[in-house]
Specification:
The structure is a homodimer of 214-residue chains. By secondary structure, chain A is α/β, with parallel strands linked by helices. The first copy, chain A, has two domains: 72 residues, Winged helix-like DNA-binding domain superfamily/Winged helix DNA-binding domain (Arc Repressor Mutant, subunit A), CATH 1.10.10.10; 114 residues, NAD(P)-binding Rossmann-like Domain (Rossmann fold, 3-Layer(aba) Sandwich). The first copy, chain A, contains eight helices and nine strands. In chain A, the strands form two sheets. A seven-stranded mixed beta sheet of chain A has the order 5-6-4-3-7-8-9. In chain A, strands 1-2 form a two-stranded antiparallel ribbon. In chain A, helix 1 crosses helix 4 and helix 2 packs across helix 3. The longest helix of chain A is centred in the N-terminal third of the chain and has 16 residues. The relative contact order of chain A is 0.09. Chains A and B meet through helix 1, helix 5 and helix 8 of A and helix 1, helix 5 and helix 8 of B. Chain A binds a DNA duplex (24 and 24 nucleotides) through helix 3.
DNA sequence: TAGATTGTTAATCGATTAACAATC
DNA sequence: TAGATTGTTAATCGATTAACAATC
């Protein structure tokens, strides 16, 4: 049904705003309003109204109605569909340290189409454990595991110095995308999707703003 | 010693690159090279060399030497100082769910100057527990706690629908910055620093790229 | 109709990249 | 010196914002 023949270039910034639209729209679900306008969303979320209109135009299945705006229920569905809530990607996580265990236990990813089915670690102390119902296997077993159960997304939560090695392993295991939590530039062949997550960077930004204030 | 009299506007994008520079430079620590040039860093991290030079110029305490580049040890120290590794901010976390517990247990924040000293939750089942050596108190005790122990950074890991309420509470408790993991626009008075973290957004980007590939 | 809202075309802004003179 | 690298000034690029005609 998706007749998007051209990639429909939506910027990463727009994608980042979508979860905020979604969560705001959901707060309206149980109210009596059924339509919402771009200017209202913009003022609620402190955004420019043209920006909101462009964002919505990019992901909405129907045009907004002059004087009314967008039907809330339709918009919620459209955003969820666009975000990929209805896909179901299998993921595995490598590195069952603190952060890794945290992500394993975090249930919020399923709402975004990611199902983490197993974890791997090279530390014997971690291997064999069960975290949030997911087994931790030895890293040596990763390739075999992925042969039996194709995995789309590999999540790297190992220390920086091990990240490249794990990355190579995941590529050998044929994952299509890598979600990298180590602050390291990974070398990968073309075609493999890399998404770097950098929690520390946000902290850096906070520190900087705090320092500026005084 | 820091004679930065003007704010020295460094963009958030630059700040986001600093952890990658740092981690790369650290890999050179135990080698025999003592100087590194912007072009080399750029090619290693797949960045533009002018961009690297500008980034380094913004944070370095000394100018680079033509033909040699930057002294690695000095650069490491400068980045760490700039990032705020040497500050020590007290933080508390509200919402000891999966994500909250993960962040509590994650030890990596101390390297960025953040020391999470306690957690709060309104769920009786969570209250009284000990996570990674940190106590979980009832949210009702938050204000009193912050009166005794001034807290700089409040971390919000409660569900989206409770985030604003907790935000208000943290502001009453006089925190200077809020690190918000809920995908919600928070309303705050001027002067309070807000940093939104949006883990789901990265997942959205991965989903989109995966979808484009086929 | 009048006015709010839409989608779009043009202007602005900021970040990235290219070009270049200065330095060791 | 010649050449690699520096820092800086100018050009490019993309995202945000402003202006405006079209619609109900």
């Amino acid at each position: 049904m998706s007749d998007k023949n051209l990639p429909n270039q939506v910027s990463a910034n727009t994608l980042r705003r979508l979860p905020y639209y979604l969560s705001y729209l959901k707060t309206l679900k149980n109210t009596d309003v059924s339509y919402i306008s771009a200017p209202v969303i913009a003022s609620e979320l402190d955004l420019n109204e043209v920006q909101v209109r462009k964002d919505l135009a990019a992901i909405s299945s129907v045009a907004g109605k002059p004087k009314k705006g967008f039907e809330i229920d339709v918009l919620i569905n459209d955003i969820q569909a666009y975000i990929g809530c209805d896909v179901n990607n299998c993921g595995i996580l490598v590195g069952a340290g603190h952060l890794g265990r945290a992500l394993l236990a975090y249930s919020g990813f399923e709402a975004y189409g990611l199902n983490i089915i197993a974890a791997f670690d090279s530390n014997p102390a971690a291997v064999g454990k069960d975290i949030a119902g997911k087994s931790v296997y030895h890293t040596d077993a990763l390739l075999d595991f992925c042969k039996k159960t194709p995995v789309t997304i590999g999540i790297i939560t190992v220390p920086a110095e091990d990240a490249q090695e794990i990355c190579d392993l995941l590529i050998k295991a044929n994952v299509k995308a890598i979600w990298n939590f180590a602050p390291v530039k990974l070398c990968t062949p073309d075609g493999v999707i890399i998404q770097n997550e950098n929690i520390a960077a946000s902290l850096t930004i906070i520190n900087k703003k705090l320092a500026e204030q005084f």
